[in-house]
Amino acid sequence: MNAGSRMRLVMPSPVGPLTLSAENGKLVAIRFGAEPPDALRPGRAHSECDASAVDADILTEAAGQLEVYFAGRLREFDLPMRLSGTPFQVAVWGALRRIPYGETATYGGVAARVGCAAAARAVGSANGRNPLAIVVPCHRVIGADGTLTGYGGGLSAKAALLALEAGAASSALSAAASARRHTRAGTIIGSGLP
């Protein structure tokens, strides 16, 4: 594989399309929305660079684990990943991974867990820069008063993920999961993007 090139897969999900990215044998990003050019169609593999089979396997495994998660049967992801950020961001993302499935924490609580009790806003900023949505569960962080606050996928997606984890999956999640069983589509593409 060319140095610095990423392979991507776009998958449908109950909270909208997700774009997964892998590079050098690691999952490096999960973003809300379909990032590839419009000309690329789901279900078709695309190789715009020398994308490695290892990256394709990681993307396939990540998509599979996400599908099991959305079906309510996976509580913890087991994927090779690379989190790139400042030391503080990486510490926050590690703390997010320790919030148990089905539970929430406040920004202030996460700040205390990383040893910076007064840094709730900085935790919010790090949360917003989380490159691996859902797998690094930033959706589990809520406001001090228990309200849902900002989320890259939108507050409706955050609410749906929390409801799924609470065992009260919304009808939208159930309907989308049913549709997903009938159309398992993904688009893998390679690009020279760093």
Q: What does this 3D model show about the protein?
A:
With 194 residues, this protein is of the alpha+beta class. It folds into 2 domains: 6-78 and 174-191, no CATH class; 87-168, Arc Repressor Mutant, subunit A (Orthogonal Bundle). It contains 6 helices and 6 strands, in the order E-E-E-H-H-E-H-H-E-H-H-E. The chain has helices spanning 53-70, 87-97, 107-113, 120-128, 155-166, 171-182; strands at 6-11, 18-23, 26-32, 105-106, 141-142, 187-191. Strand 1 (6-11) and strand 2 (18-23) form a beta hairpin. Helix 3 (107-113) crosses helix 4 (120-128). The longest helix is centred in the first third of the chain and has 18 residues, at 53-70. It is globular, with a radius of gyration of 17 Å. Mean pLDDT is 82; it is low at 37-48 and 179-185.
Bin the helical content.
Answer: 25-40%
Largest sheet: 4 strands, antiparallel
Order of helices and strands: EEEHHEHHEHHE
Give the strand order, joined by hyphens, for the main sheet. Answer: 3-2-1-6
Percent of residues in β-strands: 5-15%
Radius of gyration: 17 Å
Oligomer class: single chain
- The whole-number mean of residue pLDDT values reads 82
Count of β-strands: 6
Overall domain count? 2
**Unreliable residue runs:** 37-48, 179-185
Overview features:
6 strands, Arc Repressor Mutant, subunit A, 6 helices, 4-stranded antiparallel beta sheet, alpha+beta, globular, single chain, 194 residues
